[in-house]
Amino acid sequence: MADFYQTGIITTLHRLKPNNIERLEADLEKFSRIRPIGLVLPALYTEFETFAMQRIVAELKSVRYLQRIVVALGNATEEQYQRARDFFKEFYTPVTVLWMEAEGTVRLLNLLEERGLSAGDGGKGRSCWLAYGYLLAKRDTDLIALHDCDIVNYERQLLARLCYPIAHPHLGFEFCKGYYARTSDRMHGRVTRLFIAPLVRALEGMAPGALFLKFLDSFRYPLAGEFAMDINLARVNRIPADWGLEVGVLAEVFRNCAISRICQVDLADNYEHKHQELSPDDASKGLRRMATDIAKSLFRTLAAEGVVFSDEHFRSLIVRYVRMAQDTIARYYADAMLNGLKFDRNAEESAVHVFAQSLSAAAKDFISDPLGLPLIPNWNRVLAAIPEFFDLLGETVDRQARQPVARTA
Asked: What pTM was estimated for this model as a whole?
């Protein structure tokens, strides 16, 4: 059973009893009449060939409180785009599949580039950002929820718990982050357990009083891909285009939202999705690449808050991080033993070694280029440069959705 302890500086909403999904959904149906809810699902086509996506679609078919669902589909051919649309036939909620490779979508992205407003390279960040823009363009949703499409044990209760704190008219939250445990016969979530948590605490020792670090350390699962927010946050937040997406989103929320209006919610007893490879021998892939991008996002955010970094700071940070991570491994070992879980201590130590390499690479990149890749601009800036962009986006996506797609034999 969950505890009810409030830690850190943001509100934690716990899972104190088995939920009555009927009660949650009945309330959300009432709330949504006043504050309509949109759902964004970023997905690669390959995910439509998995059991996880089939389960997610089956669960969402029963949901009655959503105003719209936008599926941001990437890495798909025209035929695959049609197959993806077929998944959502006979849905109660209107579903729009925003095909990232469609000619019209590509023209809009090129228009942004021509105006100096890059939406970054293809990936989850760009897909989410464009889906937010479509919902903003339709002007009929007041809050947006987002979750990944590789959740093997998905239940629609996850979505209800994610939306509830923002949709409820008397709670006053504008941003809600999900959290959960990730275990099978062992612990998962290596980047969260062995990189983010010890790195943030190592940084806190070097920058005492940095509110952003205290904020970040308050989240039980800062890399969770599930969150909900007021539509106005989607309008003003910038988005990283790299693997630093989740940390970058939290940095923008920290910048644009009062802490008292931010919460995290326990979504599920356990959460199972695909696992990334560590990729120790290739710095451009897997968790090694992810850790590098996350660290650079952290450094940029802290620098913007006035924290000064130098070569000496980074050398000390890497040593502090490794020490903190090793202490963390000892804690998780004890936790695993108590709960009868497998625990490969050598694999954990090896992961820390790889993450230390990522941290060193991130430090070098930051010293040579403190600004790094530009964030995807917020929608206010886009509309200042191209006032008609929402009209163009809405018309382009809706026109594509109306066109029949010829199937290959």
From this structure: 0.94
